[in-house]
Amino acid sequence: MSTAPQLVVHRDKELMAQAAAARLITRIVDAQASRGSASVVLTGGRNGNGLLAALAAAPARDAVDWGRIDLWWGDERFLPDGDPERNVTQARAALLDAVPLDPERVHAMPASDGPHGTDVDAAAASYAEELARAAGPTDHGGVPEFDVLMLGVGPDTHVASLFPELPAVRETERTVVGVHGAPKPPPTRVTLTLPAIRAAREVWLLAAGEDKAEAAAIALSGAGEIQAPAAGAYGRARTLWLLDAAAASQLPRALYPPASA
Ligand SMILES: O=C1O[C@H](COP(=O)(O)O)[C@@H](O)[C@H](O)[C@H]1O
């Protein structure tokens, strides 16, 4: 069942990143208090990295028990390990290298020089197996219970590496697939599918900047998920769009919250 999107609009992208980081800290601390650990899916891109950098700078980051968190990725650019364009490389630089994570619980997607070589479909299948191994008997659809799954919204409405009209966004069975011919470089990628995304408790979509305004307006105005993948991303308990005023500038008035900070 889809959860109706809730919108929070912040003044600018810096404030949005700081507020989202504060929100994430609270969510992780709550999950650790109630279940002993937390499970978070990271996104790449400017907004995702902005949030991680804001989290690194937040004094409250020490409220998180970093050894009791599983980190997963929504997508990855299929490049050699350590490539500066890989989402995990950028996440390490923004936050992960600065906090005491358990390396066993940092679940990076495979690289193109890893055990599967350049076979992106085999790499995707192995990440699906890793997710399935982490899933418990009561979890949904072959993935562990993600407390929060974050997605940066691309200017073309892509989320993770689900691009409009490409086969990956039509996937209904597998949790992870290889992407060939992505319109945004690099063309070869690994991505969670919509069924895997929808198994998360909370899905947060991040959109800051004028170049996201049209995408946000399309995705939130009833577009189909094949044409606008962001429209098909929702969580089981909550779907939250975190925007700045520039990204919200083309939203229909009916959607724009009257009082936002
Ligand atoms: O390539 C990607 O792009 C999207 C959005 O990135 P942005 O820089 O336009 O915010 C990102 O969500 C995805 O993880 C990444 O691989």
TrEMBL record:
Gene that specifies this protein: pgl
* This protein's record includes keyword Disulfide bond: no
Domain named Glucosamine/galactosamine-6-phosphate isomerase: residues: 12-241
Gene3D superfamilies, per database record:
3.40.50.1360
Q: Which UniProt keywords apply?
A: Hydrolase
- The membrane-spanning stretches of this chain are none
Name the catalysed reactions.
6-phospho-D-glucono-1,5-lactone + H2O = 6-phospho-D-gluconate + H(+)
Q: In which pathway does it act?
A: Carbohydrate degradation; pentose phosphate pathway; D-ribulose 5-phosphate from D-glucose 6-phosphate (oxidative stage): step 2/3
Q: Known InterPro entries for this protein?
A: 6-phosphogluconolactonase_DevB, 6PGL, Glc/Gal-6P_isomerase, NagB/RpiA_transferase-like
EC?
3.1.1.31
* Gene Ontology molecular-function annotations: 6-phosphogluconolactonase activity
- Name of the protein in question: 6-phosphogluconolactonase
